[in-house]
Amino acid sequence: xxxxxxxxxxxxxxxxxxxxxxxxxxxxxxxxxxxxxxxxxxxxxxxxxxxxxxxxxxxxxxxxxxxxxxxxxxxxxxxxxxxxxxxxxxxxxxxxxxxxxxxxxxxxxxxxxxxxxxxxxxxxxxxxxxxxxxxxxxxxxxxxxxxxxxxxxxxxxxxxxxxxxxxxxxxxxxxxxxxxxxxxx
Length: 185
Description:
Shape: globular
Distance between the termini: 52 Å
Order of helices and strands: HHHHHHEEH
């Protein structure tokens, strides 16, 4: 009898509990360069582009890869693997270039994109926080000198500024869209 009443109380409690809101969280680092599975995961990431063919699925796909590559870049920067880190940062930026056109395409298709716009704004704010910390901690320029090859000058600060600008433009664009949407309703 006591056990049944506890189950009923738990059921009632769960019926009246409001959903919990969690902040946007970046993923845990995936396979990193040097791991045997790294190239396999990159190939799978590319192949997934053909699997996620709808507008909303494409938004989730590109946002997920932008997150993944930003985490990869952050981790590689922490280990002073600047050449690999800048490559990952550029890939993260490239994944974000199609987000706004996909949002617009979804709107034209008659889909309510406000939920995704809010999610993307939240994600970009997390990205901006991480990038600003990196910009404070990393050198502006770095001369990458591998063995038996020519040195490469990495403009880390310029790449971080570009990444920050891309994300800030996305935030500004989507906030403008959300404001127009709320003004119209």
